[in-house]
Amino acid sequence: MKIPQDKLIKGDASISLQNVTISYGDFDAVRNIYCDIPRGKVTALIGPSGCGKSTVLRAINRMNDLIPSCSLKGRILFEGTDLYHPTIDPVEVRRKIGMVFQQPNPFPKSIFENIAFGARINGYTGDMDELVEQSLRKAAVWDECKDKLNESGYSLSGGQQQRLCIARTIAIEPEVILMDEPCSALDPISTLKIEETMHELKKSYTIIIVTHNMQQALRVSDMTAFYNAEVLEGVSGGKVGYLVEFNETETIFSSPSQKLTQDYISGKFG
Ligand SMILES: Nc1ncnc2c1ncn2[C@@H]1O[C@H](COP(=O)(O)OP(=O)(O)OP(=O)(O)O)[C@@H](O)[C@H]1O
């Protein structure tokens, strides 16, 4: 597959959103997003419900392609490649840009097969025992799984299942991991474990996380994008989301440049 390159991406950006508008039918869920997401860091997407965080996240690995009414204008570049160019295979995009969902969703298979299945489909021919162990180790769930690899993935706790899903994503060797509120179904201890795992993972992967939990954004992310949504005159169907401010997490939480950001992080709305 010949991949068109584009020189417009900045040196340390892995993903570049360039004037991205995403619509469901006639309704623009988010408009005119520009954002360069750096490589090897954790970037958090925060903002009130309905501002389009998940819509933007799903656009980055073309998951929105699965929603017939959803369309995208503008460009999303990944390492300089236009992800929406007609020659690009969305399945290949999802291999390079993996995703972990809100609810842990292991396959109805053994713990071992949860890892091996996807790797095999993606053509992995190396030592499967080694891959399974390494993936579970990187997702910090090896110790809990090593003596029960042949048991069902469902035999694990919710937090362990989520780390199994992270291991499954890692096994495919993506470059970017998207996480859509990965801890919202988990207890505080499991949440902490996932957060610790993220600190390790960012040494090898670019991570983008949607979170409602501002403390979590502060704890795990290097960069934060704050989105908001507004009713626009002449637009029917709901509020239109937009990116208010994108900066280092420390700056967003200590001295944001926009009053709206300050109001949001201090709990005045949302
Ligand atoms: N499949 C869909 N079809 C039609 N509209 C959708 C669809 N998914 C999302 N929307 C709309 O797009 C807008 C943005 O939704 P999205 O889920 O991306 O926001 P969000 O910021 O992630 O919200 P939350 O924090 O509540 O999960 C909302 O107005 C929502 O109703």
Automatic annotation (TrEMBL):
SMART domains: AAA. Residues 15-254 form the ABC transporter domain. It is an enzyme of class 3 (hydrolase). GO terms for cellular component: membrane. Keywords: ATP-binding, Hydrolase, Nucleotide-binding, Transport. One of its GO terms (biological process) is phosphate ion transmembrane transport. Gene3D superfamilies: P-loop containing nucleotide triphosphate hydrolases. GO terms for molecular function: ATP binding; ATP hydrolysis activity; phosphate transmembrane transporter activity. Its EC number is 3.6.3.27. This is Putative phosphate ABC transporter. It comes from Prochlorococcus marinus (strain MIT 9211). The gene is pstB.
